[in-house]
Design goal:
Layout: E1 3-11, E2 21-28, H1 38-48, E3 56-64
Antiparallel strand pairs: 1-2, 1-3
């Protein structure tokens, strides 16, 4: 069962210094079990931008129903 999340995030990679705050929808293969699992969202976003997970900082998120 997949789960979609609306996210706001900042990219800290040097290529995004001028405009580094973004928002968008991320779809995970399974719902997160708690707030502590935001690493899954950061990892999915990092893959989309071809960056390391450490280059993504999640500002806020909410599950879409």
């Amino acid at each position: 069962m997949t789960a979609k999340y609306y996210t706001q995030f900042i990219l800290t990679d040097t290529h995004y210094r001028g405009g580094n705050e973004f928002s968008g929808v991320v779809e995970l293969s399974q719902p997160m079990e708690g707030d502590s699992e935001t690493r899954d969202i950061e990892a999915a976003l990092a893959r989309n931008f071809d960056l390391n997970r450490s280059a993504v900082r999640l500002v806020s998120w909410s599950r879409l129903h």
